[in-house]
Amino acid sequence: MTPMTQTDPRIERIDIPLHHPVFEGHFPGHPIMPGSLLLDLVLTAWNGPIAAVPNLKFQRPVLPGETLSLCFTPAANGLTVRFSCLRDEVPVCSGLLRLPDALSSEFDGP
């Protein structure tokens, strides 16, 4: 695989189901989406190979029934993709995806 060449942001919309089963136990009486599920939604929306997630920050809880905007912005070098997940323009999580060529180049000899 070669590095990405497109640097235009890509935006996805994610509707969080009001009655997703994960909310039953996380947490009763005050349901919030687990960070692991939110990361899974990000990776599924990316829908491409990923070598690592070297940077990830959860800024605000995600509640049942919310709609999120997920923006992917590839770096000019094509080796990483910055993402941000927003609810009404307010960040709920953000991070960096390292693409496979970025990982393999770290292990190449001089």
Question: What would you note in describing this structure?
Answer:
The protein has a single domain, classed as Thiol Ester Dehydrase, Chain A, CATH 3.10.129. Strands 1-3-4-5-2 form a 5-stranded antiparallel sheet. The protein contains 2 helices and 5 strands, in the order βαββββα. The protein has helices at 35-46, 100-106, and strands at residues 10-15, 52-58, 67-74, 80-87, 90-98. It has 110 residues and is of the alpha+beta class. β3 and β4 form a beta hairpin.
Give the structure's gist in a few sentences.
By secondary structure, this protein is α+β, with helices and mostly antiparallel strands.
Task: Please tag this protein with its features.
Thiol Ester Dehydrase, Chain A; alpha+beta; disordered C terminus; disordered N terminus; single chain; 110 residues
Distance between the termini: 21 Å
Mean pLDDT: 88
Instruction: Specify the biggest β-sheet.
Output: 5 strands, antiparallel
Name the CATH homologous superfamily: Hotdog Thioesterase
Strand content: 25-35%
Q: Could you give the order of the helices and strands? A: EHEEEEH
GO molecular function: lyase activity
Protein name: 3-hydroxymyristoyl/3-hydroxydecanoyl-(Acyl carrier protein) dehydratase
Organism: Thiocystis violascens (strain ATCC 17096 / DSM 198 / 6111) (Chromatium violascens)
Pfam families: ApeI-like
